[in-house]
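Customer escalation, tier 2.

The customer says the design service returned an amino acid string that "doesn't look like it belongs to this structure." They asked us to rerun it and document both sides in this ticket. The original structure tokens are below, unchanged.
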């Protein structure tokens, strides 16, 4: 089955028709208007985590940090407490490698060097601080979202109360495809009859930045006045349609 990331990046005809105002100019303004610098929080421990000179496996470091933060949340531990038990480190690492299968080894050995492990732990701490600052009552990593049509069961990144965050541990700004990916998750959840999230956003633990916006407002602005339910219905109908041909010119 095709992934939600591919759907967000391809099918330009559908997206241009459904979200005609989600242009490069809009995305540029979106980045400027919605960005929050988390290092500016009063008395914050949140900090930027630049890529170290000895860090080469950027994707594995990011995924390992995510899995560490997820496990810490599930066990109600801080990262400083979690890392004291090697079993926790091994469990989070195996989850990361399972997601990024190219790093699998026969003996399940850790292929990260010492500096990469250290940076993963520092990145994982940023999740601790970020979630703590939200004063959240309901936090869930990797919330499952039912599939539809040719898109199977999905896992989003991070749900904090009524907000769904997509985690982007990257150096670039948010792109239109990132917004579309979030909208796919939101449409799938909406189709169950239970609208779980009122807000959505992006969190970047490396750059110490987050974006948060009203879902209804974003859809109204980018669709040319459609309601949230109308756009979400269009997305679900598209996913359930037959005879779809991939638009590879992107």
């Amino acid at each position: 089955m095709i992934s939600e990331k591919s759907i967000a990046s391809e099918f330009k005809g559908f997206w241009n028709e459904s979200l005609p105002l989600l242009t490069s100019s809009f995305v540029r303004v979106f980045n400027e208007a919605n960005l929050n610098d988390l290092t500016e929080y009063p008395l914050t421990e949140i900090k930027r985590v630049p890529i170290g000179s000895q860090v080469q496996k950027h994707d594995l470091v990011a995924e390992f940090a995510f899995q560490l933060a997820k496990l810490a949340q599930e066990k109600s531990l801080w990262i400083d407490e979690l890392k004291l038990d090697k079993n926790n480190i091994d469990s989070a690492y195996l989850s990361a490698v399972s997601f990024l299968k190219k790093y699998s080894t026969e003996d399940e050995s850790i292929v990260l060097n010492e500096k990469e492990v250290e940076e993963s732990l520092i990145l994982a701490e940023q999740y601790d601080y970020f979630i703590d600052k939200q004063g959240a009552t309901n936090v869930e990593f990797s919330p499952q979202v039912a599939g539809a049509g040719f898109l199977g069961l999905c896992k989003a990144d991070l749900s904090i109360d009524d907000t769904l965050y997509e985690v982007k541990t990257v150096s670039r700004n948010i792109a239109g495809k990132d917004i579309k990916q979030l909208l796919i998750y939101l449409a799938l959840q909406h189709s169950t009859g239970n609208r779980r999230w009122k807000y959505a956003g992006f969190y970047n633990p490396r750059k110490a930045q987050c974006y948060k916006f009203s879902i209804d407002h974003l859809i109204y602005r980018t669709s040319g006045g459609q309601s949230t339910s109308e756009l979400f219905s269009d997305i679900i109908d598209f996913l359930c349609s037959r005879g779809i041909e991939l638009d590879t010119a992107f």
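Tier 2 assessment: The sequence is consistent with the input. The two ends are 20 Å apart (CA to CA). The chain has two domains: 4-40+139-240, 58-134. Sent an explanation to the customer and offered a walkthrough call.
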